[in-house]
């Protein structure tokens, strides 16, 4: 077979051209195609099976413990307290003063939680810094580092306030559409083609 320089150059250009990845399938496709009764069942199952990861940082954590005891018993609402870790949790309850030193740990544990995940900011300190808002070492609200779904005010809030916050979160989950929540958050094919892995050089370096 006669190999011309033009054919060789064309083959090399084809080999070095980037391979276009297909557009990733979005989570919202199934949510759109599923019938409405199925969406209701899925949301019903998620709202009444919330495994809680309690991130207690100060005195508000005592009120969280009180809400989980026999008098208030938020397990009857479908909330399971004290998940083994963030990878088994659906809901993070941040209770107490978030300092700048603790903020990276809060964000790291939130990122370890599987989707869909939710956050309740419990108490004035977690909401906006509380009485320590002007301190040099206090984060002005946990929403500065992670998204928050429900804010529970108080210093400290009563256990009944946490129960009300959980009910508000469950109402939000019941109305939720997975397509609206995650349909536009997936990376595109262009974003996946990063320069982290470089192709091998065409000519070796002569040492």
TrEMBL record:
SUPFAM superfamilies in the record: HydA/Nqo6-like
Subcellular location per the Swiss-Prot or TrEMBL entry: Cell membrane
Gene Ontology BP terms: aerobic respiration; electron transport coupled proton transport
Cofactor, free-text remark: Binds 1 [4Fe-4S] cluster.
Pfam family, one: Oxidored_q6
HAMAP family membership: NDH1_NuoB
Protein name (record): NADH-quinone oxidoreductase subunit B
Source taxonomy: Bacteria, Bacillati, Actinomycetota, Actinomycetes, Kitasatosporales
